[in-house]
Amino acid sequence: MHTAQKIAYLDCHSGISGSMFLAALLEAGFSLDTLHQVLEASPLHGYQLQYDTFLDKGIRGSCFSVLLEEQKQPTRSLSDIIALFHTFAISPRARDTAVTIFQRLAEAEAAVQRIDVEAVHFEMGDVVKTIVALVGVVLGIEELGITQFYASSLPLTSGHVQTPHGLLPVPRPVTLELLRQVGAPWKPCTIEEELVTPTGAAILASLARFETPAMVIERVGYGFGRHRLPWPNCLRLCLGKVLSEVSVPDGEVDTDWVAVIESHIDNMSGELLGGLMERLFNAGALDVSYTPIQMKKNRPATLVTIICPPEDGERLALVLLHETSTLGVRIQQVQRRKAQRTQELIATGLGPMLVKVKRLGSRIVGATPEYEECQRIAREQDIPLTDVYEIVRQAIQVALESWG
Length: 404
Fold this sequence. Notes:
11 helices, four-stranded antiparallel sheet, 20 strands, single chain, 35% helix, alpha+beta, elongated, 404 residues, seven-stranded mixed sheet
């Protein structure tokens, strides 16, 4: 059986901004009316939307901009902006995605300034543009049914850009920090222009894997920037599907996709980490593991790794952000190959017992004792658990020979 999953590949040959991505989503089929309805029902104001068709060097697409009506706007903290996101009439999953992206942007800014994230102050004019773009992006992702994102390498340009902090080098320090955290690949570009914006970088860092997927392309959307360059200044969004199950002889393996969430934690006690693991499993994690690592300044730390269904990735990432001391998490979509697993009843010297059987298609390739079953027998018959395991292993060898 082949099951198609909707994926998006972002060709960032000319960089990425929140507005370019939103324009590309609109070109790929996202409804502008949906965005208008959500924005009009929100308390956000002081701006106008500009959405135009755009033709550049024979390629036609769309260009999206947010025009501010007021030049002077107050500053806001991260908690203020998160509260603002909660005023939008969007699904909890879309809101959580938007909050995660913005929080990642705020944490990168705090890292650059070496201050606490709540001490970062955002000039509201720029924030209005970012909020509108992110709300549009998460609505578009949801409406188009996109579950996986991939992205190309990024153009490493030079020059300077005017910001609320003054004139800064391109790429901006916050942009570099966001993409450094996820190991984004860059390629040289001689243009003196900001092609990758902080919002675009935060979207990529939060959602995308920097790989070229094997996919069937169904639609292409071109989202343009307004600057004219020697090439078409657009973000190319390729929307299509990938087969989540691959053909193998005799159906030997199952294939699926999972989200892998990782974070480094260096200041939580063992008791708290124990409670965290229980909380994550209760929240739907398929697996949780802790790995001892060494961080900067020779500090011992713990790598937290969570495996979960793709649709639960954003929610479990937020559990980490809310309930641990971490400032950020990494999320990636990973394809798994799995042997089939069943339970079989076999005869043992201690009576009939269930064991875990590993299959590849119709072939049985191994079996192992079932812990809970062994523990039950050990308690009932008052014998060491290790003895039970050994008896079951011997019975498994006999059973495997009979199974052939």
